[in-house]
Design a protein that fits this description.
- By secondary structure, this protein is of the alpha/beta class.
- It contains 14 helices and 10 strands.
- It has helices at residues 17-27, 40-47, 56-64, 81-87, 106-111, 127-135, 149-163, 166-181, 193-206, 226-235, 239-248, 265-277, 290-295, 307-328; strands at 5-10, 32-38, 71-75, 91-95, 115-119, 186-190, 218-220, 254-259, 280-286, 298-302.
- The strands form 2 sheets. A 5-stranded parallel beta sheet has the order 3-2-1-4-5, with helices on both faces. Strands 7-6-8-9-10 form a 5-stranded parallel beta sheet, with helices on both faces.
- Strand 9, helix 13 and strand 10 (298-302) form a beta-alpha-beta unit.
């Protein structure tokens, strides 16, 4: 009997019945199930410094102990692209919170004659909800200050910046610097208030910032012209940024996707298009932005779920990147 290799991946930080259900249905699609898990370092990049709760070796041991799992592979990158290309699975599986066009490695598997499935998730189970329930965490709306709100906002601002991982910011900045050194350009996209962040950072890169260097190539993509409205009518709103990326980007460029939630379909589509072209991708998002972080080569998760705190941090991070550019070019 010919072997059919199925591959799926995730963090699997707290193994729960939702995971078991998905893994069982994935195994049913073939004869061998290989599970890729994010390393501890990779989980921190995607979910923030407080995760994982369980180390990579222990998470791997839990999974391999399951009868339905045949092999577990740990990968250190934010996406499993390299691992998928190494394994060359016949079937690629993700949970139903991922659309087919959002699944990293889908194009590779299909081109090699394989199949890709987005399987519905068992309702009511997620690692994040379990952790929040354990911590008794309230939503940010429940925690809005009723008095002294300006002081509280400034206090939150300070706390956010004290928690931001400077090593991650520097790592992303190095990707930007390297691309500009090689003559490539930086593309930035964001919806709503994040569109303003994209325009601000692009302006600082092209406008010589604090030093008298030459202006460097950076483009803020937008969604507010009549021509782009026509694109939206023809291809759907999710395609506005990806069509611009398709027209403007080339291999070696860097796309920075800015989204406070991390779940913007428009930004995700742009990231996937950039990946297909061969661009490096950077996610700039809030603490719940695991989706965009899981799709990018590198990302910065601002440790807050408040839009104001996230967006002001994005501008500051952009300034830090510009200082790195000034220093190195």
């Amino acid at each position: 009997m010919m072997e059919t290799v199925v591959f799926t991946n995730g963090c699997f930080d707290i193994l729960h019945v939702g995971h078991l259900d998905l893994l069982s249905r994935a195994k049913a699609l073939g004869t061998k199930l290989i599970v890729g898990i994010n390393s501890d370092n990779s989980v921190r990049q995607i979910k923030g410094s407080s995760r994982p709760l369980v180390g990579e070796k222990e998470r791997a041991e839990m999974l391999i102990a399951l009868e339905i799992v045949d092999e577990v592979r740990i990968f250190d990158e934010q996406t499993p692209q390299k691992l998928i290309e190494e394994i060359k699975p016949d079937v690629l599986v993700k949970g139903g919170d991922w659309k087919i066009n959002e699944i990293v490695g889908a194009d590779f598997v299909v081109k090699n004659g394989g199949k890709v499935f987005s399987l519905p998730l068992k309702e009511g189970f997620s690692t994040t909800s379990i952790i929040e329930k354990m911590l008794g965490r309230q939503s940010s709306d429940d925690n809005q200050p009723t008095e002294g709100y300006l002081f509280n906002s400034l206090q939150q601002h300070r706390e956010v910046f004290e928690k931001i991982d400077l090593e991650v910011i520097e790592s992303c900045g190095n990707i930007i610097v390297e691309a500009l050194k090689n003559g490539n350009k930086i593309l930035l996209c964001g919806n709503g208030g994040s569109a303003g962040d994209a325009q601000h950072i692009a302006t600082e890169i092209t406008g010589r910032f604090e030093s008298e260097r030459r202006g460097l190539p950076a483009i803020a993509l937008t969604t507010d012209t009549s021509a782009l409205t026509a694109i939206a009518n023809d291809f759907g709103f999710e395609r506005i940024f990806s069509r611009q990326v398709e027209a403007l980007a080339k291999e070696g460029d860097v796309l920075i996707g800015i989204t406070t939630s991390g779940n913007s379909p428009n930004i995700i589509a742009a990231v996937m298009e950039a990946r297909n072209i061969g661009c490096k991708t950077i996610g700039l998002t809030g603490e719940k932005g695991k989706k965009i972080a899981s799709l990018c080569d590198a990302s910065v998760l601002v440790p807050s779920d408040r839009t104001a705190r996230i967006q002001e941090a994005h501008i500051t991070i952009g300034h830090l990147w510009c200082e790195m550019v000034d220093k190195n070019l």
